[in-house]
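Below is a filled-in request sheet from our internal design queue. Each sheet records the structural input a requester submitted and the sequence that came back. We keep these sheets so that new team members can see what a complete request looks like end to end.

REQUESTER: design group, bay 2
PRIORITY: normal
MODE: inverse folding
CHAIN LENGTH: 240
BACKBONE (tokenized):
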């Protein structure tokens, strides 16, 4: 199966043990470090702690640590490749105590990783427009004990101003433009990261809200499904 340019492995009954997954998790974190994608010790420890396999649909569980997005329940929803999390969280400088908003809940895996990074002093709010994807992620997070994250089934492009402002915001779907409500909900000295479509190419963009104004920096080309809702383009919800 091919999804948005990615070749997805076929569904299969899982055969790997907890020990197998633990070894793969350690190896993946080591690889991310070797590739220069992973530098923060807090993000490293979070990736080592959160069992990615427990956020994967049953028939794709054995592929949890492959560098491919995997399909999720919902409309064109996916869980991102493992490297996508440090790719987003490192430029954000996500750290202990931050108030963090995630747009695009996916499987809940990124939400769990972010919760481990920000710690008890921080806050994680995740917004997902697709009710089926939302229910899948909520079940995963509840089952694994992440019940203090705030989950919102709504249009992520509108954010969640009730708990703002946020120190860090990640949009995990491609936008034609950065949604103004999310920029408004960004705290002073805050950072926002998102894939933005420019001339038919998706570019990962980092926004910083400084005293001198908004600073924007392009990081690298990426491939994500489209943001849905008021500020979305065509296509589905989720992240790849």
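RETURNED SEQUENCE:
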């Amino acid at each position: 199966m091919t999804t948005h340019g990615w070749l997805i492995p076929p569904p299969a009954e899982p055969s790997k043990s907890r020990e197998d997954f633990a070894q793969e998790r350690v190896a993946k974190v080591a690889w991310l470090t070797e590739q220069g994608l992973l530098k923060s010790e807090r993000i490293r420890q979070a990736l080592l702690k959160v069992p990615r396999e427990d956020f994967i649909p049953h028939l794709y569980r054995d592929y949890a640590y492959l560098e491919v997005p995997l399909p999720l329940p919902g409309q064109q929803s996916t869980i991102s490749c493992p490297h996508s999390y440090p790719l987003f969280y490192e430029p954000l400088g996500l750290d202990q105590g931050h108030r963090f908003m995630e747009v695009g809940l996916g499987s809940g895996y990124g939400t769990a990783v972010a919760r481990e990074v920000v710690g008890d002093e921080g806050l994680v709010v995740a917004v997902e427009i697709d009710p089926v994807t939302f229910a899948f992620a909520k079940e995963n997070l509840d089952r694994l004990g992440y019940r203090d994250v705030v989950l919102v089934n709504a249009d992520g492009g509108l954010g969640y101003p009730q708990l703002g402002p946020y120190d860090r915001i990640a949009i995990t779907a491609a936008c034609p433009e950065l949604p103004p409500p999310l920029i408004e909900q960004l705290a002073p000295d805050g950072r926002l990261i998102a894939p933005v479509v420019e001339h038919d190419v998706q570019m990962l963009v980092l926004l910083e809200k400084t005293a001198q104004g908004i600073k924007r920096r392009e990081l690298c080309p990426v491939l994500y499904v489209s943001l849905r809702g008021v500020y979305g383009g065509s296509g589905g919800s989720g992240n790849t």
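SHEET NOTES:
- The mean pLDDT is 93.
- The chain has one domain: 17-221.
FILED BY: M.R.
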